[in-house]
Amino acid sequence: MEIQDTETRLIRDLGEQGLLKIIQPFCPIGIVGDDAAVIPRPDRDSLVITTDVLVDGVHFSDRTTPPHSVGWRAVAANLSDLAAMGATPIALTVGLGLPPDTSVAWVEALYQGMTDCLRTFGGEIVGGDLVRSPLRTLSITAVGEVDQTHSIQRSQAQPGDAIVITGYHGLSRAGLELLLNPTVPGVNKSDRGWNELTEADRQRLVRAHQYPVPQLGVGQRAAQFDRVAGMDSSDGLADAIVQICRASGVGARIEALPIDPALQNHPQSRDWTLYGGEDFELVLCLAPENANQLLNFAPSTAQVIGQVTTDASQLVVDIAGEMRSIGLEAGFQHFNSSPPPG
Amino acid sequence: MEIQDTETRLIRDLGEQGLLKIIQPFCPIGIVGDDAAVIPRPDRDSLVITTDVLVDGVHFSDRTTPPHSVGWRAVAANLSDLAAMGATPIALTVGLGLPPDTSVAWVEALYQGMTDCLRTFGGEIVGGDLVRSPLRTLSITAVGEVDQTHSIQRSQAQPGDAIVITGYHGLSRAGLELLLNPTVPGVNKSDRGWNELTEADRQRLVRAHQYPVPQLGVGQRAAQFDRVAGMDSSDGLADAIVQICRASGVGARIEALPIDPALQNHPQSRDWTLYGGEDFELVLCLAPENANQLLNFAPSTAQVIGQVTTDASQLVVDIAGEMRSIGLEAGFQHFNSSPPPG
Fold first, then answer.
1. What H or E segment, with its residue span, contains residue B304?
2. Contact across the interface for A58 and B32, Cβ inside 8 Å
3. Rounded to whole angstroms, how far apart are CA atoms A23 and B112?
4. I need a labelling partner for B138 at 20 to 30 A (CA). Which of A68, A189, B163, B305 fits?
C-alpha cells in the first residue's frame, strides 16, 4: 500500500467521510455531524444553524430545474435540515455567485422561488452576499431555534425503537428521470407501466423533484418526546437509516418498505425508494408508544416501516419477502461520485 | 433610450446597486442594507447574521493568498461585519465547494487559517457543507449577538458628528501590489522610495493584505453610545463614508486623511488610502464627546479624520490642502468591475 503525504493527497482519494475526518478537528466536538448544528444558549432556546451550497451543473441545472424551482428547493433543503432537528426557522441568508451574463429574470425567479417556500413554511431572507463568479453558486444558511432540552439527534436510537418515516421515497428521483428522459407512451414495452403513467402522476413526480416539502411540523412534534433519533432523507432513505444506525451503534430491520403506486411499474422502483435521495422526508427512531402518538399527529404522512435492532453491523431490508442486507461500515460516498444534476 | 424586458436584461447591465434593487423586494424592509442583518428577539439580545461568498480567481488566488491566509481573511471579513454592528461573534458555518483534484493540504491549511483567526477573536465553526464544484468557492456565515437597544447602523449619522476611523487604510492594497509586482530595490527611479521600503514594512503590508484584523473591541465599545453610525471599510474608506452619507442623508468633510508612512512615497498612496479596500477597519460617525471617549478607549488605533456636514451631495476630502470632491449619488459599482484577485 502506497503512503502519500498530505501535500500530494487529493480530496477525491478521501471520499466524503475521509474529508469530514480532516475537517472535524477544526470544529467543536459534539456539534458537527447532525443535519444542523445546535448551539446551546444560556436560559433560552438553542440556536440551530445549517448551510447548503449548490453549484450549477452539480446540484441544479436549467434542464431539470427552472430558477423558481432552484430557489424553492434550496430553501426547502435548509428548512428540512431544521425540521430534522425539531427546530423552528427564524432567518436565512443567501450567498449568490453569478456570472455577469445571468439574466435579471433568472435572478428574480430564483428569489421568488425562495420567498414562496418561506411564505409557506416560515422564516425570511434577512441578508446575504452577491458576488461575481464564473459559474452560478447558491449558498443558503438557515437559523432556527429549538427548546434546549428537546432536539432530534442521530445518535439517540435504541434497539426496539420503531422506525417512522414521513411520505414516500424515490419520488424526487423518479421526477428527475421524467425530466431527463421524457418517455413516449407505449414505445418501450419493458417500461410499459412507467410509460403509461397518468398525466397527474407525472406532474406529481416532477413536482416532488422541483418543489419538495420540508417536514417542519412532524419534526417539531417529534422533538417533544423525551428521546428521539432522526435525520432527513436528503441523501436517500437507506443513507438516513445507515447514518442513524452508525451514530447510535445499532442496526435496523425494514419490514414494510412503502413504494409509491406510481413507481411500482418501473424496474428501478426499489432502488429509487431506497437510494434516490432529495425527498426531504424525515426518518425517526423512537419508542413504540411515541411512534403511535406521532402517527396520530400526522396520520396522512407518517408510518412505521421497521424497527431498530441490536445487530450494529447491518441494515436488513425486506422487500416483498426478498431480503437485502446493507453493511453499515462503509457509508455512502457522494463526494467523488457523479450523480446526474438535479 | 432602449427599453429591455427582464427576460433579456443581464445583471452586468444593472451594476451592484441595480441588482440589489431587484432583490430587496424579497427581503424584509429595514433588515437588509447594513454589513449584517439584525434580527430582534423578544426579551433578549438581537441576533446578527452576515454572509460572505469568496470565489477562486475573483476574491482570492494562489498567487497572493496561501490557503491559510484565504481562511483567515474569509473569517476576518465576516467578523469585521459583526464588528461593524457592534456585535459579539457566536458561531460560523463554512460552505466549501471543491474540485476533486484539490489537495488535502490546501483544505487543512484553509481550516487552520479559519481556526487561528477564530481563536484570536472569538467564535467557532459549528458546521457547514462540503460539495463538489468545478472551482473553489468559500461561503461563510457568521452569527453574533448585540444588545437589542445598541447596534451600529449606517443611517444614524448627523451633521456635526465626528468621523472616527481605526487604523490606516490602503495597506491591504499596497500589500497586494507587493505580492503581484515584487520590485527590485533601485530599479525604477520614479518608485525609488517604494522600492526602498524596509523589509519590515514590506512584511507589514503583505501581512495587512493576508491577515487583516477585525475591530471587534472598538465596534462593541462604540455600540454602547446612544447613537452611532458606521460600517467597516471592506470596500474602501471612501466607499464606507459615501455609504454612510447616503444612508443618513448627510455629507462629509475629511480634513485629516492619514496616510501610512510606508505608503507616502508611492504615487498611488492617496488613491489606495481612499479606495484600496479590504482593510477591514471601522468608520464611525458619532457626537464629538463620544468620539473623544472612543479615542480614549482605543488610543493606538482610533482617530478623528473629519466631520459630517449638511451638504448631502458630496464628500469633500482635503489632502494636504488639495481638495477632492466625491459625488454621493452614483455610489460604487463592484459587480461589473474586475479588480485584481486578492
1. strand B302-309
2. no
3. 9
4. A68
Q: Which residues does chain A have within 8 Å of residue B97's beta carbon, measured at their own beta carbons?
A: 53, 55, 137
User: How far, in Å, CA of A197 to CA of A185, rounded?
Assistant: 8
Among A27, A54, A75, A96, the residue to mutate for chain B (most B Cβ within 10 A): A27
Look up residue A161 and give its amino acid. D
Sort out which chain A residues have CB atoms less than 8 A from B143's CB and list them.
47, 49, 143
Q: What is the DSSP letter of B49?
A: E
Q: What does the pLDDT look like over A102-140, one tens digit per residue? A: 999 999 999 999 999 999 999 999 988 999 999 999 999
* Closest CB to A103 among B10, B100, B114: B10
Does A51 sit within 8 Å of B139, measured CB to CB?
Answer: yes
DSSP output for A277-323: -----EEEEE-HHHHHHHHHHSTTTEEEEEEEES-TTEEEEEETTEE
Q: Which residue of B55, B57, B91 is in closest CB contact with A37?
A: B91
Q: Which residues of A touch B96 (CB under 8 A)?
A: 53
Is B95 in contact with A39 (Cβ distance < 8 A)? no
Residues of B in contact with A111 (CB under 8 A): 22-23, 26
Which 3 state secondary structure label does DSSP give B309?
strand
The closest alpha carbon to A35, from A48, A19, A25, A54, belongs to: A48
**Cα gap B216→A270, rounded to integer Å:** 54
Task: Give the gap in angstroms from C-alpha A192 to the nearest C-alpha of chain B.
Answer: 36
Inter-residue contact B170 to B82 (CB < 8 Å)? no
Task: Report CA torsion sign: A268, A272, A59, A19.
Answer: negative
d(CA B28, CA A128): 13
- Are the beta carbons of B228 and B219 closer than 8 angstroms? no
Question: Contact B95/A141, CB-based, under 8 Å?
Answer: yes
Interchain CB distance below 8 Å, A12 and B100:
yes
Nearest partner of A140 among A114, A159, A116, judged by Cα: A114
In sequence order, what are the residues at sequence separation of 6 or more whose Cβ sits closer than 8 angstroms to the Cβ of residue B255?
B305, B306, B307, B318
Out of A11, A27, A31, name the one closest to residue B102 (CB).
A11
**Chain B residues whose beta carbon lies within 8 Å of the beta carbon of residue A118:** none
Q: Do A11 and B97 touch (CB under 8 A)?
A: no
* Cβ contact, residue pair A49, B143, below 8 Å: yes
Q: Which residues of chain A have pLDDT under 70?
A: 1-7, 29-33, 183-193, 329-342
How far from each other are the two terminal CA atoms of chain A, in whole angstroms? 37
Residues of B in contact with A108 (CB under 8 A): 6, 22
For residue B97, what is the nearest residue in chain A, using CA coordinates? A53
Cell of residue B327, nine digits: 459625488
Q: Estimate to the nearest angstrom the gap between the alpha carbon of B204 and the chain centroid.
A: 18
**pLDDT computed for residue A194 by the predictor:** 73
This prediction's pTM: 0.89
Eight-class DSSP state of A190:
G
Residues 6+ apart with CB under 8 A from B30: none
* Contacts of the segment A310-314: beta carbons below 8 A, 24+ positions apart: A310/A159, A310/A250, A310/A251, A311/A251, A312/A245, A312/A249, A312/A250, A312/A251, A313/A251, A314/A251
Q: Where are the strands (E) in chain A, listed by range?
A: 37-41, 44-55, 88-98, 124-132, 137-146, 162-166, 229-232, 251-254, 282-286, 302-309, 314-319, 322-327
Give the Cα separation of B203 and B156 in Å (integer): 38
pLDDT, tens digit, for every residue of B117-170?
999 999 999 988 999 999 999 999 999 999 988 789 899 999 999 999 999 999
Question: Using alpha carbons only, how large is chain A's radius of gyration in Å?
Answer: 20
CA distances from A288 to A257, A308, A309, B299 (A): 18, 11, 13, 65
